[in-house]
Each structure stands twice: as C-alpha cells, then as structure tokens.
From TrEMBL:
GO molecular function: kinase activity
Protein name: N-acetylglucosamine kinase
UniProt superkingdom: Bacteria
Gene3D superfamilies: 1.10.720.160, 3.30.420.40
Organism taxonomic ancestry: Bacteria, Pseudomonadati, Bacteroidota, Cytophagia, Cytophagales
The keyword Kinase is annotated on this UniProt entry: yes
Amino acid sequence: MILIADGGSTTCSWALLAGGPPQYFNTEGYNPYFWDTPGIAASLVRSVPVDVHQAPIRAIHYYGSGVLSPVKAEVVAGALRQVWPQAGEVSVAEDLLAAARALLGREAGFAAILGTGTNSCLYDGQRITQVIESLGYSLGDEGSGTSIGRQVLRDYLRGRMPAALAAKLKADYQLGEVSEVLDRLYNHALPNRFLAGFARFAGEHSHEPYCQEIVTRSFEALFEQIVTHYPDYQRHAFNCVGSVGYYFRDALAAVAQRHGMAVGQMLREPIEALVRYHEVAARP
C-alpha cells in the first residue's frame, strides 16, 4: 500500500493506493514552520481514518509547504514514521515538486502554486531547476490568498473599502475593533491562514469592481515581482495548482495573457494527478 499526501498550509489532501480505486481523505495542513513533530503526529492520529491508520503502508510520498530544508523535512518525516512505523520508505519533498509533477508529469515547463501562499518554478521533467523565492506572507507571496486577504483587511481597517462591502465583511467575519483584529493577527497562531481567509470574501463578491481590482492587482504583482523574472518566461505556458489560482482563474488568465504568457492547466488540487504520476512510477 502506498500513501500519497499533498500538504498546504491550511489543508492536506491524501490518497491511499491499495490496488483498487484510491481512497481520498483530508487532514489539517502541516507547515513545519508552524508545527512540530509531536503536534503533527497527534493531529494525524485524530484525523486519519482508522482503516488507513492501521493499514500496512509500505511507502509514503509526502509533499508539503514549508519543507525547504532537511531539518524542516525531518519535522514531518518524524511524525509520519511515528504514525506508520512499518513504512519502509518515507519521502518528504516540497509541495512545489508535487505541483510540477501534477501539472507537467515528465515534461519540462513552468509550474506554480497559488493557495494560502505562493510558489513557482521551472521544471525539466524530472527536477526543479530554478525557483524565484516567494519570501512568505510577510515579505511576498504575491498572488496568494494571504496577498489578496491582506489587501481586503487593510482596506477595511483603514476605511478604504466601499461602505456596503465593509458592513458585509464586518458582519460575515464578526470583526471587532482594530485592536482586536491586530491582536488576532499578531498574537495568535497561523496568521497566514487568518489573512488568507479574507480572500474568500473577494471571491464571494467577485462581481464587485472593488474585489475585481484587488484580485487583479495581486496577480499583476505576481507577474511583476516573480513570473517575468524567469528567463524566457513567455516560452512557457502558465500552469498552477491551488484554490486561489483555480477560483480566480479568469482574472489570472487575463493577467497572464497581458504579459504574453499562454495559459495551461489550472488545477484546484494536485492529488488526483499525483496519484496518476505515482501509479505510472510504480508499474514494473
């Protein structure tokens, strides 16, 4: 049995390959910049279906956000070995490799992730060859849920949002005084998720010119700060995975085309394509 995982900062999608149709399920996301090994292991025990927890797993292929060094990879790998000690192979790789494999298979090209955070690369069909760092939600992550959500929340707190939308946002998100919002942002866990949650508001009101402008501005920043700095970027199609890229795909495609880049695949999640990738790899 093979277990495959694609882990974002918010959620992690899993697939169990046991000879029949894949069994899919979800857990929390386990970015090792915000989680430690005991916490991940405890969450998995709570969240994974009992039959999967007890299954004789022989290999685990985990792709996740925040897995940028051997030290961070071991935070996740240690938890996986605790939960499935019988697994003979436990591989942990960055989620960007999952995106490239899901979008491009064994073909070369450009791949990106646009979800809670942003990441992108050039891929030669086997490995990632170039990455322009997104720098995380504090310094970058242009085009991400945190980027869109940050602008929405900032405009609300500064009184720059149209009044009707501001009233709707306050009611929907039960926002209190500025000090309360800032306390939630700076003094509680997972501030990136908190910010990204406001991108949903832009999606729910995508017919509003204000929200359209916010989203377009974020995608323009993605191209200006990241995509156009890849060599010969216009030779590649723009391919991405992630909820933000998928649900705002029309706006994203328009920005890509304005920058002279063709549009390829835009997948909400890569897990099904990853299953196909590993099924082919496992064949004798």
